Amino acid sequence: MTKSEEALALVERLATMTTPEEDFEALKDEDGIANDDGLTYDDVDEMVSDMSDDRLMDEYSAFMTFVRAAKEIVKKG
């Protein structure tokens, strides 16, 4: 696999992840309020600020996995 093919594959993997905005939209009801585990959120920033430490660490871990993969692609010169 060429460097550009690997980079494209990495970008495609990144694109499969959801953003907080997409998560918020998926949780919204007809009134525009997101409901998650009994909690309601009027906007995505409120929902993000209430994310658990476990969720944030999982997101950080996934991000670091992608950073490491990108570094490996760059190393190949």
How would you describe what is shown here?
It is a single chain. The protein has one domain (3-75). It has helices at 3-15, 20-27, 44-49, 53-75, and strands spanning 34-36, 39-41. The longest helix has 23 residues, at 53-75. It is mainly alpha-helical and 77 residues long. It has a two-stranded antiparallel sheet with strand order 1-2. Helices cover 65% and strands 8% of the residues.
Biggest β-sheet: strands ordered side by side in the sheet: 1-2
Question: Share of helix among residues?
Answer: 55-70%
Report the biggest beta sheet as strand number plus sense, adding barrel if it closes.
Answer: 2 strands, antiparallel
Q: So how many helices?
A: 4
Structural key phrases:
4 helices; two-stranded antiparallel ribbon; 2 strands; 65% helix
Structure in a nutshell:
With 77 residues, this protein is mainly alpha-helical. Helix content is 65%, strand content 8%.
How is the topology of this model organized?
Elements: H1 3-15, H2 20-27, E1 34-36, E2 39-41, H3 44-49, H4 53-75
Helix pairs in contact: 1-4
